[in-house]
Amino acid sequence: MSQKFTSTIAGASIFISLLGLASRGLGFFREMIFANNFGLETEFDLYLVGAVLPITINAIILYIGQNYFIPEYQKKYASDTEEAQRYFKQSFIGFTLAGILLAALLYLTGNIIINFYMHSASLDDRLSAATVFNIFLITIPFSASISILSALLQSVYEFKYPAFAILFLNVSIILMLILFSDRFGVYIIPVGYLIGTVLQFGYLLYNSGKFVRINLLNDKFELKQLKSVLSSSIIIIILIESISQLYTIFDRYFYGEISSGGIASLNYAFIIWFLPISIFSISLATAIFPIITKAINDESYDEIERIYNENISINTFLFIPFAFILFFYGDIVIKIFFERGKFISESTEITFGVLKFYSLSLVFYSVYAVFNKIFYSINQAKILMFITIAGVSIKLVFNFILVDLHQDGLALSTSISFIFFFFASYVILNKKLKIKDRLLFLKEFIFHLVNCSICIILVKIVTDSFLKNGIFGEVVTIILFLVAYSLTVFKINHNAVNITTRVFKRLNFFNVLKTG
């Protein structure tokens, strides 16, 4: 009997990738609606402040659920299916109860939390943020349950259900915004999030019933189940993920110290900054991770260095021109995606100022995104945890130092922290992996930086003579810059071109399908 397409590794990879692309597209469309409906108004700042902690907790819970549940469930299922059933029920009850208790605790301390963020804000503004905060709290128990239901379905190789369920959130928020934002304003966003979360829960609960008998009332919850899987390595991974989520929380603390609309401008600029990371770096990490892990296990040091150097070459080749575009022409990118409705030209100008500072760290973070995976490959999660703690601490310290620059200062502190992540990882991995050419990044960085600088100056000189100012002229300039940059690299037959082509072929859907 043949396997279902989405239950195979190849099929699941293709299906999840397509749904992931659809989800990112919907998420970006959602942000465009936010920009149209709310712009950089104080109302949207208040939403971002009220939403940040519950949304961060939901993201952490989802990650914890997977690491807690999947390894132990599969181990139990291989030897005793009844024991695996009990383990699922205990985990489901435990996570749901923990979610309820956490939500209740946050509700009781909500005023303290909101006042901590908004110590200098008016009473009305604090009440608005508190309302958003309280609506989001309702989602935490559901998210805790969803984390275990998703992990169960992934454990039995039914990847399509969790992947499809992700779409509920963005679709629900988009529909609520289109139908009711004029009437309920920014409060409709957490309502849409809540509806999407409940739909996710119902959908996953129904489909989980095909694989386990869900009759929770007949089972007692046992705390000893928690002790069986909370190994030190999982706790370290949880700490890394939790600590790395503190960036937005740290920025929200300075709500009262920066310009009105500053928090919103940080949000929009970061979305644009992160877009190439999400498309290219995550794909690259996916391709490199299993290959370098095998090379490390085989102690093939020449192969390790080759893959390590490929990561550096590809990222510098791809992301330095992206950084130039965001730094010099980010206002055009912002205009195209966001400037409509309440997101006016002044909003573009403020957001562009933030985006410039974010762009300084783009290439460094793109390389670090793969370095992050390598630390797990060489079983050095503890070192990664210390790097993460140090980087987040640098972010907090520089927030205080640079807050006089308002939202630009907060963006700059983020870039400083991300650059630290890169250099700390680079120095440590060079030593741990016994890399011979330790100046490769510097050589690649200088080459592409000089190439981009020459190309952008020449293109600007040429286009200024025959193109008028405006979006069309600027878009043509960007295209010509990319063409000039690419032609230069191809003309000299730079190694990064061949490396990039070879690595991304590993991600080709049709090749994956053939091997499946």
Gyration radius, in Å: 24 Å
Q: What shape does the CA trace take?
A: globular
From the N-terminal CA to the C-terminal CA, the straight-line distance is 16 Å
As a percent range, the share of helical residues equals: over 70%
Instruction: Outline the low-pLDDT stretches.
Output: 5-10, 509-516
Whole-number total of structural domains: 2
Number of helices: 22
The arrangement of helices and strands along the chain is HHHHHHHHHHHHHHHHHHHHHH
Overall pLDDT, averaged?
84
Strand fraction band?
Answer: under 5%
Per DSSP E runs of 2 or more residues, the count of β-strands stands at: 0
Structure description:
- The chain is mostly helical and 516 residues long.
- The chain has helices spanning 9-38, 42-79, 81-108, 110-117, 123-137, 139-155, 160-165, 167-184, 188-208, 224-227, 232-244, 246-253, 262-297, 301-338, 345-359, 362-377, 381-402, 407-432, 440-466, 471-491, 495-505, 509-515.
- Helix 2 (42-79) packs parallel to helix 6 and helix 14 (301-338) runs parallel beside helix 19.
- The longest helix has 38 residues, at 42-79.
- The two termini are 16 Å apart.
- Residues 5-10 and 509-516 have low confidence and may be disordered.
